[in-house]
Specification:
The protein is an all-alpha fold. About 65% of the residues lie in helices and about 0% in strands. Helix 4 crosses helix 9.
């Protein structure tokens, strides 16, 4: 989730290639921050207040449409995170994997032990399973670990495949995923909550980086059109009570293309390296782990959102949630500083290793 970003150059065969993994591009780090604010927004909307029904759309059209639009704008968030990793490529190392797992262990066990000391939690089989990533609630972390471990295999295929082969594989994959995963018949896809789905997004983003530069100028338009399609499909399915598909599923074709549009749009931002943006982005994964925690979601995140909504009636209440979410992000950044300091000490035990091997194709 915190894969390094870098500058790129273009080879004579038209493929973009990584030049350095030491300098983080602030454009993509800003996109990482935006995506995490979107995650907070998705959880603040449908997760806290429930999904608007057909009756809600009829009885309170303005409020329902605002909530639906907000959800549709932000639902691309998870796919964006995975596609950022695919755009630059994951090159696993022991140090990188340990860093990923250290963040997970630090917050899952750290928050549990604090809640236990405060008397807000008890030692149960369920709580232990949560801390060991054995519960479905930890689906993103589990799926991303799977992607991280399989990245060398995926990278090897990308390196050897021609543009035509890679394109055909991606097209066939998404036809399969949308056809059987969107309606839920392919249970192993889990509506996008799976490593397999992440691999498809990774391949797609890598293809766009290597061969899709000509589409970059259309990125914002692709995102906007995809979002409008998501809004329209959501209203249609709710009004007609269609339960076979979900407009806001991560495997919806409009959610996938919307995320791709945002990534392409981001690739056109050029403002160098901004230390503040990079600093805030370093805690993006921590923001995710903290706010979705089993104990903090119902006792901290949900009450903050509900209190912000209660300050103003209707749509204004929804708008009041946005600064509250930004405040949550900044609070998590502060909380994450001891973890970063501790990892700085631990990481000294790892020998520095090159994470990018020379390749004739890349």
């Amino acid at each position: 989730m915190q894969a390094a970003t870098s500058q790129s150059v273009t080879n004579t065969d038209g493929r973009n290639t990584l030049r350095s993994r030491k300098v983080r591009e602030s454009s993509f780090e800003l996109m990482r921050i935006i995506a995490m604010i979107m995650v907070l927004s998705v959880h603040a909307d449908f997760l806290v207040d429930g999904v608007p029904t057909g009756a809600d759309i009829t009885d309170h059209p303005a409020l329902a449409l605002t909530r639906i639009t907000w959800e549709s704008v932000c639902i691309v968030c998870v796919n964006i995170f995975v596609m950022i990793s695919g755009w630059f490529g994951i090159h696993p190392t022991v140090r990188g994997f340990c860093h990923l797992m250290f963040q997970v262990v630090f917050y899952l066990w750290g928050i549990f032990l604090v809640e236990l000391a405060l008397g807000h939690a008890t030692v149960t089989w369920h709580s232990i399973k949560m801390c060991l990533l054995l519960e479905r609630a930890n689906w993103f972390v589990i799926a991303y670990i799977g992607l991280y471990l399989l990245a060398p295999v995926v990278n090897a295929f990308i390196e050897k495949a021609s543009e035509r082969t890679l394109r055909h594989v991606i097209i066939c994959f998404f036809i399969f995923e949308v056809t059987f995963g969107w309606c839920g018949s392919a249970v192993f896809i889990q509506s996008g909550y799976s490593t397999l789905s992440f691999i498809g997004l990774y391949l797609f983003a890598r293809y766009l980086h290597l061969y899709g530069e000509r589409f970059s100028r259309h990125g914002l338009a692709i995102y906007c059109v995809s979002t409008l399609c998501t809004v329209g499909l959501f209203i249609l399915t709710q009004k007609l009570d269609i339960t076979l598909i979900s407009a806001t599923s991560y495997v919806s074709p409009f959610v996938i293309t919307g995320a791709a549009g945002m990534i392409l749009w981001c690739s056109t931002w050029h403002f160098g390296t901004k230390p503040l943006i990079n600093f805030l982005a370093r805690s993006a994964f921590a923001v995710f782990l903290i706010h979705v925690d089993y104990y903090l979601m119902p006792t901290v995140f949900r009450p903050i959102v509900q209190h912000a909504q209660a300050l103003f009636p209707g749509i204004l209440g929804l708008m009041a949630v946005i600064p509250a979410l930004c405040g949550i992000y900044l609070a998590c950044v502060v909380i994450d500083q001891p973890r970063q300091w501790l990892w700085g000490l631990i990481s000294r035990w790892f020998k520095p290793k090159a994470i990018l091997e020379p390749s004739k194709n890349q």
